[in-house]
Amino acid sequence: MASSITFSCLFLSLLSLSTALSSPDLHRPSLSSGDVHDLLPRYGFPKGLLPDNVKSYTLSDGGDFTVDLNTPCYVDFPGQTVFYEKKIAGKLSFGSVKDVEGIKAKELFIWASITAMKSDPSSGDIVFSVGFVSKSLPASMFNNVPSCSKKLSLES
């Protein structure tokens, strides 16, 4: 009788442990399991799409992500100024980021919200979408993780 109670307790403990280990939250990457910049190439994007002041990030099994920056900031890429809000979100899959929130690009005198990004390996470009309008830039522009600036450059 005592051995069957012990066996039942052991079985329930193992069942609880296996359920906890299969929880989707344990499979989410975090800063402790790697840098978000190292995660981007696994999805077909260069490391430098995000600035150097990433505080933390989450990525669900379904591809929903959030990236928290220490502060909002500007980055000057060659010929393109980008503003990153403190929180960036979207849906990530291989070669594609959709429903982007928190990134704006300056075109002439207008700031436009980036809504999607697509990696095009055949051309070596990243295609950025602002609603129905898109712009292709060489992926090589984003090979290095850019430094953030709290202020907009006067040259922008």
TrEMBL record:
Keywords of the record, alphabetical order, are: Signal
Q: Gene3D superfamilies from the xrefs? A: At5g01610-like (2.30.240.10)
* Residues annotated as signal peptide: 1-20
Q: Which InterPro entries match?
A: At5g01610-like (IPR036758), DUF538 (IPR007493)
Q: Record's superkingdom?
A: Eukaryota
Protein name, entry field? BnaA05g13870D protein
Task: Please name the source species.
Answer: Brassica napus
Q: Mind giving the lineage of the organism this protein is from?
A: Eukaryota, Viridiplantae, Streptophyta, Embryophyta, Tracheophyta
Q: Which gene encodes it?
A: BnaA05g13870D
